[in-house]
TrEMBL record:
Keywords: Cytoplasm. This is Putative gluconeogenesis factor. Pfam families: CofD. The keyword Cytoplasm applies. PANTHER family: GLUCONEOGENESIS FACTOR-RELATED, UNCHARACTERIZED PROTEIN YVCK-RELATED. SUPFAM superfamilies: CofD-like. The lineage of its organism: Bacteria, Bacillati, Actinomycetota, Actinomycetes, Mycobacteriales. One of its GO terms (biological process) is regulation of cell shape. InterPro entries: CofD, CofD-like_dom_sf, Gluconeogen_factor.
Length: 330
């Protein structure tokens, strides 16, 4: 990069998909903001939201760990600082074992929940932890209140035409039926104001990859956030999963991923739909995906994005592709 000021990058998502994207974006800039879903109701996050009424901290913790321990961030530190930060990042992710009340809780979840309780604000808690670790960027919740995912699911009744309403991220992610549509409860929740400001100021915005119905689509179900994405002058990029996810999107083609997203937010506009070359072979299938990308006003961008022999994105490869696309728009 030749520009004197680092690009401002906003990455929307949740879970492992967002972790990989943040690691990639950190190669391009020190000014990376994560906007994270807050609908998890399973495991440690589910227990904390049920007992404290707090936003689930799990995906926020993972985003925080990504910014703290990204290779590009550690490379900016001396050896002693890098070792210290790495230890803290590992501690954030460390889960207590055993069978007692703390079993299964990651340290970072408890630290976030406790600091938010002391400060009275989850955003202030996230900012304080980043300052504590000397990390740049920000981690922001999509909303300041815990959300619930509700889905219409078919294939659970004897009549295949019938659908059933199920609630909860874990239930949606593990249903043996086919998810048709998802909603957020409360409906049309207010967006996090800091996230809206970050989107308005961004040079690059990414959405995905991740669990399609529980980490990606929820971001387009917050009206203020979709409006901010539509108005943004940033280069907006949709990074699509390498393969369908068991449970949520079993049997989905890449084209169907795009159609489902569009069905939930037909006003969403992006500039680039980024896919791995192995996901879209040449021929009619690629033509179908190009037409699906055009629903968002986007161009299909194809590259070698995966770790060899694994179904995970390679952060360096993703960073190179995103950097090249951003340079075109300068």
């Amino acid at each position: 990069m030749t520009q004197t000021q680092p690009r401002k990058i906003v990455s929307l998502g949740g879970g492992h998909g967002l972790y990989a994207t943040l690691t990639a974006m950190r190669y391009l800039s020190s000014q990376v903001t994560a906007v994270v879903t807050v609908a998890d109701d399973g495991g440690s996050s589910g227990r904390i939201r049920a007992e404290l009424g707090a936003i689930p901290p799990g995906d926020l913790r993972m985003a925080l760990a990504a910014l703290v321990s990204a290779p590009a961030a550690l490379a900016e530190l001396d050896e002693e600082q890098s070792s210290r930060v790495t230890t803290w990042a590992q501690t954030l992710q460390h889960r207590f074992s055993g069978h007692g009340a703390l079993a299964g809780h990651p340290v970072g979840n408890l630290l976030l929940a406790g600091l938010a309780d002391v400060l009275g604000d989850p955003v202030a808690a996230l900012d304080e932890l980043l300052r504590l670790f000397g990390a740049t960027g920000r981690v922001l919740p999509m909303a300041r209140v815990p959300l619930m995912i509700e889905a219409d699911v078919s294939g659970l009744e004897s009549d295949p035409r019938m659908s059933r309403v199920i609630q909860g991220q874990v239930a949606v992610a593990t249903t043996p039926g086919k998810v048709r549509r998802v909603r957020l409860l409360p409906a049309e929740p207010p967006a996090c104001a800091d996230a809206l400001t970050a989107i308005a100021d961004a040079d690059i915005i990414t959405l995905g990859p991740g669990s399609w119905f529980s980490s990606v689509i929820p971001h387009v179900l917050v009206p203020e956030q979709v409006n901010a994405l539509t108005r943004s002058k940033a280069r907006r990029m949709l990074i699509v999963n390498l393969e369908p996810e068991l449970g949520e999107t079993t049997g989905f083609s890449l084209e169907r991923h795009l159609h489902v997203l569009h069905a939930h937010a037909d006003t969403l506009r992006v500039d680039d739909v980024i896919v791995d070359e192995r996901s879209v072979p040449l021929g009619r299938e690629r033509e179908h995906v190009e037409r699906a990308a055009a629903l968002f006003g986007a161009q299909l961008r194809i590259g070698d994005l995966a770790v060899p022999g694994a179904h995970v994105h390679d952060p360096r490869k993703v960073a190179r592709l995103v950097d090249g696309l951003a340079e075109r728009s300068r």
